[in-house]
Amino acid sequence: MQYFTLISAFNFLVFALVLLTKTSPIKKANTVLGIIFILMMLYDLTMCFLYVGFRLQSDLFLSWYVPVDCVFCGCFGPAIFYYIDVVFSEEKPLLSRKYLLHSLTIAPLVAFPAWFATLEESARITHLKSNILGASIEESVANMYFYVQMTTYLFICYFRVNKHLKESKTVVVNNFVVDIGWLKAYFIIDIAIMLLSAPICIIVGNDYLNAIIGQIAINVQFAYIFVMSVWQTGVFTDPKLNVPRQPADVVEPVEQEPDADVNPEPPLTSPSYSNLSDERATEYMKTLDDYFEKEKPYFTQNCTINMVSNETGIPVHYISYIVNAKMERNFFDFINDFRVEKAKRLLLDTSNQFTVEAIGTECGFGSKSSFYKAFKKVTNQTPLEFRTNSRPSV
């Protein structure tokens, strides 16, 4: 068993180094995934240390062991939840209330090794040896809590991904279109593994069987997410070629136009597979202008590049290209410019009694922080400063 955990730890270290060091269009998401693999490696090394102690029948080794592996396990659920937030570009600062509350779900799995560390050395060794044959009540409770916590997070993530997939099979991260259909399969596999292994581990209840099932489960789950993440985000490609992709759910024939510019080494802002002529780009820009003028979608919080693509019939990668190359900004700044202009008019209206936060919501911002950040980026002032400095004195 110690050899299996050691090999597994080495694999996770390699996975982590690839994700943490290689350039990728979704570098932040891959960094989060790399940190998860570091946690997996630490879990495996802790288990390897324990089973070396059993193999050598060394009380000295066992006396040094503290079950911090369950703390690493407790981090997996919140970490995967944060990974999905990053993929969907919905993450908040790590010290925000949202993530601090999620971190509390790890607390019970911190309590178990803390209790274990308070035992006398002889009691700890006896406890470990007895758990090989049958788990103690404390161990069983910790295992049961982990399965409930992890399965809950997997279901939450599954429903979030499935909800998004009903609207689009892709997300746009840093103007790079990523197919996320594989995430649904990943969470289905994970949930199935958890639901099948939980009863076995809880009913049989010995450390050795739990470790075997746990190792098989985590290696299958995380090897799959590594391979699919690398495959979908172009980690092993030349970073200069990481240009916006055509999403899997958008199919458009490529027109061969005689006046299309041909450049064997296209600039980073241009899709290398596209023959988009200036005439077609101008046509798309007019379509976008008409759509934004008539529908004003930017005043709704769910205005995304995928939604605009669905409404206008313009492929996501062309919208990204036009906004970047022709308007010299990214899509979110482009949308926020419209919102900020409306917010400025409302802030200057002396008859308007809305609070600053209400104005942000009215203009399509999802939170006070996003409103303040976008407004200050455009005006170099906060909304409150703008209202105070720009309104005529009475």
Written description of the protein model:
This protein is mainly α and 394 residues long. The chain has two domains: 2-240, Rhopdopsin 7-helix transmembrane proteins (Up-down Bundle), CATH 1.20.1070; 278-390, Homeodomain-like (Arc Repressor Mutant, subunit A, Orthogonal Bundle). Strands 1-2 form a two-stranded antiparallel ribbon. The protein has helices at 2-21, 27-56, 59-64, 69-87, 97-103, 107-117, 121-133, 137-165, 181-204, 207-233, 278-295, 305-312, 316-326, 331-348, 356-362, 368-379, 383-390, and strands at 170-173, 176-179. A hairpin with a 2-residue loop joins strand 1 (170-173) and strand 2 (176-179). The protein is elongated, with a radius of gyration of 26 Å. Helix 4 packs parallel to helix 8 (137-165) and helix 8 runs antiparallel to helix 9. The protein is 68% helix and 2% strand.
Secondary structure blueprint with pairings:
Layout: H1 2-21, H2 27-56, H3 59-64, H4 69-87, H5 97-103, H6 107-117, H7 121-133, H8 137-165, E1 170-173, E2 176-179, H9 181-204, H10 207-233, H11 278-295, H12 305-312, H13 316-326, H14 331-348, H15 356-362, H16 368-379, H17 383-390
Antiparallel strand pairs: 1-2
Helix pairs in contact: 1-2, 1-10, 2-4, 2-10, 4-6, 4-8, 8-9, 9-10, 14-15, 14-16, 14-17
- Return the CATH class of the largest domain: Mainly Alpha
Series of secondary-structure elements, N-terminal to C-terminal = HHHHHHHHEEHHHHHHHHH
The count of strands amounts to: 2
The strand line-up of the biggest sheet is 1-2
Summing up helix and strand content along with how strands pair, one would put the structural category as mainly alpha
CATH-derived topology of the largest domain: Rhopdopsin 7-helix transmembrane proteins
Please tell me the total number of domains.
2
Mean pLDDT: 74
